[in-house]
Amino acid sequence: MTEQILTWMQALAREHEGELHGCAVLQPYLKGYFPEPYLQQTAFMVVDTLPLPNLTGLKGMLAQQFMPKDLRSIAYAHGYYILREHADDWSLHCRELVHLAQWQHLGAEGFLQQLYQQIKSDGYQQASLVKMADAVVGHFNQDSELDNIPALIVQSLQAVES
Question: Cα–Cα distance between 142 and 138 in angstroms, integer?
């Protein structure tokens, strides 16, 4: 399944290459959580429908069973997509930027495998990668003073890996 998703993601990235917006335009809304160099290397796209891979077989059925039905945004290795009606929900942008930092640190295959295993064993809401994003969004919504979230994500992931 990982190979199927990676191939699909590469095609999606090529398809939307010129349409993704650099996240640096979001800096005024993100409370300093993400440094400018990180925002300059990340991208997003506002869409009417979230692009999702067509997963087949038993693993595909399991993935669909565990994924939330009310997705409003989703991150892939090359960038994230957010539904048009939620484009000004800065906490969603924050969540997906956390996931992009996870993608960058773990690599595409590592991220997919880790997320799949976590969802399979603990469910989507209890998956540690999801909980990490939820924790950052919680701080964001409470106006906590944090900065350089990508570095904190890398430190947290490295602590788990050790």
Answer: 6
Mind giving me the DSSP string for 55-114?
A: --HHHHHHHHHHS-TT--EEEETTEEEEEGGGTT-HHHHHHHHHHHHHHHHHHHHHHHHH
Q: Exposure string (b/e) for 122-159, b if CB count within 10 Å is 16 or more? A: eeeeebebbebbeebbebbeeeeeeeebbebbbebbee
Taking the mean position of all CA atoms in its chain, how far away is CA 115? Answer: 11
Q: Each residue of 54-101: pLDDT tens digit? A: 766 545 555 555 566 788 999 999 999 999 999 999 999 999 999 999
Say if residues 26 and 45 touch (Cβ distance below 8 Å): no
Which strand (E) or helix (H) includes residue 141? helix 128-141
Look at the block and give the residue holding tokens 């400018």. 36
Task: Work out how many domains the chain is built from and give that number.
Answer: 1
pLDDT (tens digit, 9 = 90+) per residue, 138-149?
A: 999 999 999 999
pTM for the predicted model, two decimal places: 0.91
Q: Please give the residue range of the domain that contains residue 68.
A: 2-161
Under 8 Å CB-to-CB from 160, ≥6 apart: which residues? 128
